Amino acid sequence: MRRLAFFAILIVAFLPPVARASDIVVATIGPMTGQYAIFGEQLRRGAALAVETINAAGGVLGRKVRLEVGDDACDPKQAVAEAHRVAARKVALVAGHYCSSSSIPASAIYQEAGILQITPASTAPALTDDAYRRGWRTVFRTYGRDDAQAKVAGRLLLERFAGTNIAILHDKSSYGRGLADETRAVLRKGGRKETLYEAITQGDRDFTALVSKMKAARIGAIYLGGYHTEAGLIARQARDQALDAVLISGDALVTDEFWKIAGPAGAGTLMTFAPDPRQEPVAKAVVAQFRAGGYEPEGYALYTYAAIQVWAAAATAARSLRAGAVASALRAGAFDTVVGRLRFDAKGDVVDPKYAVYAWRDGRYEVAIPAPR
Question: Model-level pTM?
Answer without folding.
Answer: 0.88
